[in-house]
Design brief:
single chain; OB fold (Dihydrolipoamide Acetyltransferase, E2P); 5-stranded mixed beta barrel; 3 helices
Amino acid sequence: MRRLLFIVLLIGVIGGGRALVAHHSFAAEFDDKQPIKLTGTLKKVEWTNPHIWYYVEVKNPDGTTTMWALSGGAPGQLMRRGIRKDQLVVGAVVNVDGFRAKDGSHNGFGRSVTYQDGRNVFTASAADQQSK
């Protein structure tokens, strides 16, 4: 019985530790001194914890495209604020305001998504709407 309890506790510690590593703060990953404004086609939405991710394909001046991966708020926080997954419409052309990842990759923190008709979806939590 003690062995089973030990194994269950070990799995909980390992699993919980991975969840803590997966969750990140804004300041740990993103740079508030590198704002980004992107226009492109929304290609994919991952509505999962600890933060949603959505992907926007941006056309470059030379005709090539770059896929940007953008983090948003936690699904629960967004839903409590009235934001649902279906408000991020795959295939739509959107403008994204946010901040670039510190590592210089094509990752970022998307504060808001604005459709061509002016509709706006705030994908970050209320606290994240302000620059850190």
